[in-house]
Amino acid sequence: MLWTSSDFSRMPGRHRATLINCLSGFKSANLVGTRDTEGNTNLAMISSAFHLGADPALLGFISRPDLVSRHTLENIRDTSVYTLNHVHSGIIAAAHQTSARYPREQSEFDATGLTPTFSQYHDAPYVAECRVRLGLVLREMIDIVLNGTVLVIGEVVELHLPDNAVGEDGFVDLAALGTVSVSGLDSYSNPQPGQRYRYAKPGIKPGLLD
Amino acid sequence: MLWTSSDFSRMPGRHRATLINCLSGFKSANLVGTRDTEGNTNLAMISSAFHLGADPALLGFISRPDLVSRHTLENIRDTSVYTLNHVHSGIIAAAHQTSARYPREQSEFDATGLTPTFSQYHDAPYVAECRVRLGLVLREMIDIVLNGTVLVIGEVVELHLPDNAVGEDGFVDLAALGTVSVSGLDSYSNPQPGQRYRYAKPGIKPGLLD
Questions:
Q1: What is the pLDDT, as a whole number, of residue B112?
Q2: ipTM score of the complex?
Q3: Alpha carbons B47 and B182: distance in angstroms, whole number
């Protein structure tokens, strides 16, 4: 079946948002931890975090022009630090609940029962329940004028992982750690164990890594 | 266990790339289809496509400064159109193989056995084997000076889906369609069926959608 731009523009807003949010494929599921200048914590669910580069280690995410995202964006602008914490299968409900429109003075940590924790050299709150926790320093914010969103780019300066989570070649088995993926606005999935493929070269048949 | 920036910079390049590519979480798996000004087709695997907005329907992806990505980028710059096609579990090996460094004059369609197909109103090649196929028009390219990558932003102007793939509220069950996710550089996973959560509101317990 075929849809075109004019079909999209005729859809009710919520229906369109639900459909279009499915089109990129499966999305990452992260909680962004921040503090304001007075030290009050904030936690927000995002599904737009993406890999931008390995050297330096850069990740991007998209901040939307709504109130919930604005608190996070302002905190990052004011403090230059934030954390990203992988949502795993044991905390999906709490993670999803951080997307509710809590007033600025209420911390989503308190509201959802997730636990803030801090490391010695990084000033933004991590989520204690998460197994993969990244501490980032803001490197750049790029306004995307087309639709009023902001691309937030940060460098990973700290990485907390369970012992033995990193394989010999650097690979982290996220499925084994319970990290989930998101589809659309509200669907959370546990990926099955992955299959790794060899580095691809012209003229050589693709195959699984030994 | 804790890693810091200085640990990353001491790692061999391939090890660092493997590790850092895992940190954003699960990634989308798409094939980008393009043509050059002479009509020669090109196909490239990307794991950086992300949702940017629903109205208009905007997706972004990151183009890296390597040769493989450069062909795709130049084609999009020259023709202003491209397609994104969800990788599903039946074509993982062929999709991964498009990441090999084929010379410009060789089409990855021919090299991998995937089939180009065209729609009446869009000039970029779709992948016939894919069940979720998007036709996009270039809206903006943003240079990310920090690491020499380019953010390519396109608007979805065509959407091809199997009959009955869109639910009553607009949701597309990607797990049912076989769409896979990527972790790191080379690991492909089938997500298990997702669980959908209700729209979150302060003071109301999170729960599954009926």
A1: 96
A2: 0.97
A3: 7
